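ok so i was messing around last nite and threw this chain in just to see what happens. nothing serious, just curious
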Amino acid sequence: MRALRFAVCVILLIFAFIPRPAAAWTVTGHSVVVEIAVRYLSAQAVERLKTLLDREPDEFADLSTWADDIIRERPETYWWHTVSIPHASNGYVRERDCPKDDCVVERIERFMEVLRDRRGGPTQQAEAVKFLLHFIGDLHVPVHAYAPGPPHDPWRSWWDWEGPWVDIGGAVHTLHVWWDWHFVLRLGPNRRSILESLLARISEDDVAAWQRGTPADWANESFHSARDFKFRHAIPDATAHGIGTRANPIVLDDAVADEGAAIASERLRMAGVRLAWVLNRVLE
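result:
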C-alpha cells in the first residue's frame, strides 16, 4: 500500500512540472468561441444544455476552460487538447497521428457519441458537453494540429515545447503564445469588443460554408494554416541556425501580427459556428 501511495505521488509530481498543452486562445478566445456558439444554438439544444450544465446560456462560457482546469487532477486528459500531424504529410491520418485515440480529433468524435447516446447518465453527458465547449476551440488553433517533428525540425510537438521565440514589432514571445494570445489581442481591447467584432463579421454564407465537415477536416485546416504560416515567413530550424531562443529570437515584420490576427479571427468565428452546429446535431 505504501508503494502504491508513493507511485501515485511520483506521477502527480511529474504532471505538476510538465507544461500543460497551451490553453488555446486563452480565456478570452475560448470564451468568445462559446459565446458565438450560443447565438447559433437551437432552442432545443439550449434547453438541454441548461439542464445538463445547470446554467443559463449567458453562463455557458464560464465553462470554456474547464478542460484545461482539470488536467492536473485528471492527467489522462493531458493529450486530448492537440493532434500532432507531421509537417511532411498531407494531413491527418488516424492510425499514425492518434493511434490510441488520445488526441483532440478522436476525443471530439467520442464526446459527440456520448451525447447522441441518450442512455448515458446526466453526469457523463454534462462532462461531454464541457469537453466539447473547449476542444472545438482547441482544434481551430493552427499550431494545435501541427507537429514538425525530428530530425528535420526541433519543434517535435506542441505538447513538450512552445516553439521558437519570435520577435514581431519588438515584442518577443514563443510562436505558440503569439497564436494563443497576442494575435487575439489584436482583435480588440477586451473580450466584449472582440466578440461583437467577430459576430458582426459572420454572414449567412459563412454559416452555410462552415457548418460541414468533420473534426478531422478541421484539424487539416489548422495543420495547413500553421505549416503555410511557417513556410511563408521562412521560420527556420532554430537549432540548426542558432536562432529562435529567447535571447536570439526570429525577427518578423510587425505586419505579421496583423496577418496572424486575421487568421485567428477567422478560426475563432469558424470554431464558434461549428461548436453550435455540433451541439445542435447531438442534442436535438
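not much to say yet. The chain has 13 helices and five strands.
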